[in-house]
Amino acid sequence: MAAASDLGKSPTSSDDPSSSYSSFLHFINDDQSNVDGESVASPQRPNDSNTYNVDYCASPRNDDDEYYDTLSNLSVQSPRSSGEFLPEGSEEGRDTIAALQSKTSLSSSSVNGGGSTTTTADVPIPTEMSHNFAVEHRIFLRAILDMLAEGDQFVNTGSNDTKTLKIGALKKSSRRIKGLWKSKYVEIRRGVFSYYDGHAKHKDTTRKDIPLKAATCTCRAVKSRAWKGAAFELSVKGGPRRIWVANTPGERQGWIQAIHDAMIGASVVRGDNFLDYQMEHDGKTKRWTLPKNSPYSAFIEQYLQVREAINGAESKQDYLKALSILRGKSIMIPIQWLKTQLDDSTPTAFQEADMSSGVDQLWKDLLRDSVEINGQVISGESFHGPDRIIGNLTQLIIHHNQYNSCHDGKQSSITEVQAVSYARDIMLATDRTRSGGDSYYCIENLCLNRDLVVICPTSTVAAPLSITVCGAGMIKSNQPITARDVSGWVSTRSHSGKPWRRQYLILSQDVLSCYKDADSRPHNLQAKVMLKGVKVGDSANTSQSSKSRKTSARIIYARNIKKHMCREFLLEDEASFTLWRDALEAASKMSTDINVSINTHPLSDLMSSEKDLTGKSSPYPIVNAEINVSTEYKVCTLDPQGIDNEDTWATLRTTFVQKFRLSGGATGRITRGDEVVRLELLEWHGERA
Description:
Blueprint: E1 51-53, H1 65-72, H2 91-101, E2 105-107, H3 127-153, E3 166-173, E4 181-189, E5 192-197, E6 208-211, E7 217-222, E8 230-236, E9 241-246, H4 249-262, E10 279-282, E11 285-288, H5 297-311, H6 316-323, E12 330-334, H7 335-342, H8 355-367, E13 370-373, E14 376-379, H9 385-404, H10 416-430, H11 432-447, E15 453-457, E16 465-475, E17 486-493, E18 501-508, E19 511-517, E20 523-530, E21 535-540, E22 554-560, E23 565-571, H12 574-588, H13 603-606, E24 610-611, E25 617-618, E26 620-637, H14 644-647, E27 648-662, E28 670-672, E29 676-684, E30 687-688
Parallel strand pairs: 1-2, 13-16
Antiparallel strand pairs: 3-4, 3-9, 4-5, 5-6, 7-8, 8-9, 10-11, 12-29, 13-14, 15-26, 16-26, 17-18, 17-23, 18-19, 19-20, 21-22, 22-23, 24-25, 26-27, 27-28, 27-29, 29-30
Protein name: PH domain-containing protein
GO cellular component, one term: plasma membrane
Pfam families: PH (PF00169)
């Protein structure tokens, strides 16, 4: 069973098949249920199991039958022990799961044909039993969501976890002597930024940790003439200001991205490309950036043009003329760009709640909202509405993943734990409080002229939140391999005339750090090699030295004629050779443009393929999801005359859009596309736009 600490943003599968939540939340739509009034299953208790096998169809129906029909197709297996996957100290959660263990669960065949058997009888399931099951399911689901939220907040700064997100060498400014920089070996784990003395001749066990919690920690790019290289600031509330320097802007971007990815309590709804819109601080000034070749550049230009004209309008005619630019058009505005524009002027905008309060707010919003999932509308006001919404979404994720992975085995399948976590994150992104707030600030920033108009929703009844889930099939990328961090022991030399030396190499973006020792961790830094623009090639090993007699060994060379730089690497097996060659080639071709995030790609390529140690690209199943939340607003005069056509100057529709890509397996994750608001002018001065 997965440990509590594993139930974070990207839960992973286990080698033990019984460790998953045994087909948790298999909801089946009403059209897949049995015909009303036909055969009814009665619960049969197996000899050595806590499971009921039920195939239920009740008649006559009442207001609660729809929910009970759904629950009858739900498979839930109680945990094997009361505290097996609960965070330490969570007594309430332990009592909840312990209570569930003593109860009986329901099980049925899965969508793709499970192996459970059913028996039929002439009596329906008692209403009391169905109601008890619904209550237990709700408690169980809330317990899982609470566990995921608690796991998102937990960090152990003293951990020796071997799973690192990024390692490498950075320079750190001295707090005592101004202008003094020291080389540090850095490791980033989930929730912890650790560093050691990188130039130590002997193993230095002195380790310093910086806790990475989104609520107290900030990381941003900074610019100054006082130092060379690309600098960033990492600071903790109430602590000292630490300046770190990478060799290139690309390497800095990689470190900032890794730090944000490691943050505990960070946003689970923010798009993965948010660093593309970061601000570079230069003293008291800030420079807003926009990704190079951004698909939103033309839209942003139109947005700024309309906003400037509206702000300068002094009459109704001026205002409508400014707004007429949008007639017949639909523009897409990325929220992260808009956030940088309003960050100082509107401090209350775009504030994201922490995970625990976010889930609580989500539950409250779902109770008074409706959600359309693949065309099926579920009202939150209906019996156990929020449970049904999350359960239906979870089941669709599992169903489409199973359909795509039927020929791929279980290695890359989305587990039930992952599916619940993904469903939670998607619902948090869809949440009306967040998506509606983002949409409102987008249209207010565009259309508001405080001397002329006010912005208000057209109706108190909002359209249902829309979620679409579909399988993307077996994805295999034709894109070249992207830059990634690689480390390990490799024999190297400066040119062919020198002997080979064994060094521990760490490739971080386009910078290669060479260490002499790495018995417990890399230390005694020997050299740093900038790979930007170097020529990477390979050749067969013709040397007869004792250190390179293996006929399978091959040589990779990296050369820069202009800088008189040459480096050769001896790899003794095909897998290592392919891994290092591809990584070095990608590093040599990396862009140093500060506006380009190294870890940012179009959503279609973000999780396009994985490579094994042989360098071969293997396809794996992907599930796509997209959310759309629409709201209509009226632009009304501040001096109403009681005539609707005259008082309402324009009507606009905003649609909050975000796409997701879900994958399973040990490296499974949810990839989040840009948060975008689509703006459309519906009516203009009483006419259809």
